[in-house]
Amino acid sequence: MLKAERISKWFGQQRVLEDLNVEVERSEFFVILGPSGEGKSTFLNIVAGLIRPTKGRLFIEGELVDDSQVVYVPPERRGVGYVFQSYALYPHMTAYDNIAFPLKMAKWSKRDIEKAVREVAEMLNITEVLHKKPHQLSGGQRQRVAVARAIVKRPRLLLMDEPFSNIDPALREGVRSELKRLVKKLAITTIMVTHDREEGFSIADRVAVLMGGKFAQVAPPDELYKKPCCSKVARFLGHNVISLNGRYLAFPPDGVVIGEGDFSGVVLDVEYRGRGWVAFVQLDGGLVKIYLDKKVQPGSKVKLAPISSVELHD
Ligand SMILES: Nc1ncnc2c1ncn2[C@@H]1O[C@H](COP(=O)(O)OP(=O)(O)OP(=O)(O)O)[C@@H](O)[C@H]1O
Ligand SMILES: [Mg+2]
Q1: Beta strands in 119-188 (DSSP E)
Q2: Spans of the chain below 70 pLDDT
Q3: 150 touches 120 (CB < 8 A)
Q4: Could you tell me which CATH number the domain at 239-312 has?
Q5: Ligand 1 within 6 A of 39 CB?
């Protein structure tokens, strides 16, 4: 559905993307994870056609939409819906007019617009607030209006940039799973950006980690978690990375048995986390973080055994 081939993007002297390659399958829910400032929004903007790559080629459904030279298909002809990082709703327009906007631009008839807006509003449960303006809506309602506007033309590709960041953390999980079910039902190929690991894992068919200008690893969430490719991805995922006789070992905080094992260390600190405790333990090979279901005393000596570790080769 999407193919990016050797995409590079420079802003003046600053290189943001370099030689990035990726393919996204039809109907896939594809999540881009990565630290702030690594170029996630830049990549989405290139896919949408809002900015142009410095080098490389981009295909949507096999059609060349940008070759960074002469070929350039403008945003409105790409069949792409976009939910922006800050939603970018038009403040002076009602929710209805916001959703109707892309259809008006495409010169749909009033009747067809009404039908399409009502239908998508129904799906997203915002029929009751269609007459309101963005400042009269809650964060969650605003997000739904932004999603409605992005899908009302039934795009072949839906792009969402941190769509849950303005939603109350307590409501986020519910909203997320609802949105996932909706895009799966409509079978819209979706690329979503987040810097929240858990959020990405919970919603993705595949996750791509954007670091150093390219996708360092692309894999289903469980595979990514179990087999990070390299130390920077392992660290970004929150894994412990320690060195051991010149070799590097990564293991997640929940993959450790305490009480016995080959690693001995000293507990530096313990934090209560509701479900259990988190201990920071100083080993010879480095400082590690582990999840525990029983409290240990700071200062105590412990032995540890990682039960699911991977050796890193970078
Ligand atoms: N129009 C622009 N002109 C100059 N520099 C830009 C422009 N847009 C983005 N950048 C720079 O490119 C880099 C990547 O920005 P981008 O917004 O893509 O990051 P991001 O991964 O989306 O970050 P965040 O998670 O904070 O949203 C940043 O260093 C940013 O300052
Ligand atoms: Mg961004």
Answers
A1: 157-161
A2: none
A3: no
A4: 2.40.50.140
A5: yes
